[in-house]
Amino acid sequence: MGHYRSEKDFLQALxxxxxxxxxKYAWHTGISEKEHACAFGHSISPDTLFFKKPMDLEGENTIxxxxxxxxxxxxxxxxxxxxxxxxxxxxYHQSNPPSPKLLDMQRx
Length: 108
Ligand SMILES: [Zn+2]
Description:
The protein is of the alpha+beta class. The protein has one domain. The protein is 44% helix and 18% strand. The protein contains 4 helices and 5 strands. The protein has helices at 7-18, 67-79, 82-95, 100-107, and strands at residues 28-31, 36-37, 43-44, 49-54, 62-66. The chain has a 3-stranded antiparallel sheet with strand order 1-4-5. Strands 2-3 form a two-stranded antiparallel sheet. The chain is globular and about 50 Å long. The N and C termini lie far apart (40 Å). The model has no long low-confidence stretch (mean pLDDT 91). Bound molecules: zinc ion. Zinc ion binds at residues 38, 40, 42, 65-66, 68-69.
């Protein structure tokens, strides 16, 4: 694995990466059923984790990237320095406030 120690760390970083753009255009995880092409020229083998997002409102065009490329994009954007990490963490928490139920549980 490249930039992240675990898949969990990476997927958490991906949430911060998504926090800097509209939810309509968030990156989603997928498991490939057939071979796909990564936008950066790699091939995505069947049954592997990859990442996709819509390129238009109708969802007719989708961009797909392989895991290695997504890790690179995420790492460079949100984790290559402490400032970026802090800002994206704040944006993530702003757009995903804890649910009232959870807050309630913490109070008791
Ligand atoms: Zn790739």
